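forwarding from the other thread:

> can someone predict this with iron/sulfur cluster?

sure thing
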Amino acid sequence: VEADAAWFDEVRRLASERDAVLLAHNYQVPEVQEVADHVGDSLALSRIAAESAASTIVFCGVHFMAETAKILSPGKRVLIPDARAGCSLAESITAEQLRAWKAEHPGAVVVSYVNTTAEVKAETDICCTSSNAVEVVRSIPAETDVLFCPDQFLGAHVKRETGRENLYVWAGECHVHAGINGQELAQRAAANPDADLYIHPECGCATSALYLAGDGAVPSEQVKILSTGDMVKQARQSSAEEVLVATEVGMLHQLRKAAPEIDFQAVNDRASCRYMKMITPAALLRALREGVDEVHVDAGVAESARESVRRMVSIGQ
Ligand code: 13P
Ligand code: SF4
């Protein structure tokens, strides 16, 4: 299947025939982003999914995102163009592991990143995304212990921002973001001293970026730790000429659209998520034609997970 004008028209025609809204995460391939009704980060897309009047949601992203939409809207049909599109970070904690961790910290509040399975969300008090993780943790009384899972780098970022000693962080990671290392970032920043740095908090190099700023190697106002949605907002108001971007490479498409005059370069151009890229133009067309792959969440699990996801969508901008 070629993502040409005929493909585009057919996808749009089928979407309206099926009363489907097409949502695409910022890491999707450009063609899928272009044909979608909405492109955004995990938080924005969850909110749109919850509020949409369409009877079918086609989630062009990874499985936990589609599951989250189904938890929020159990009466809607939720499709993902390829159900094999998983997430290495979501796999880094199981519900059983979380239950054991909770047993070691009675009374703690559990904050889980949205990059988790529905079963983990069912064991969670409040979910968060990288856009609102700091605000979610700030909403919990200071004296209450917090268990934060599964991403260690986002957890470290939240701990730094909130200065909270009683925040315990699970040691999970995303293989794509963990692979964007500090040495590579330091070299790229040294070669482009005027460039702003946009760093996703899931990156292994987020701490190194702050060291670079602390050492004066990069002026601190040039270092920005941002979710993918906040990167686009930042780009729209930026006067920088050059920006080095530390996240999955699909992000460059929306950034270049938002600010065509800025030169955006990936810190690591091999940082591509194979799961996000399973949502091909052919898979999207098949999803609309055949109504596959439909996402189901066990009703009891969804019921237990719903409140934590609702709290997530209600906190932060
Ligand atoms: P956000 O788009 O919420 O920043 O999440 C990034 C991510 O890795 C999703 O898988
Ligand atoms: Fe998961 Fe990482 Fe891929 Fe995002 S980029 S979907 S966190 S594996």
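The first helix runs from residue 5 to 17. thats all i got for now
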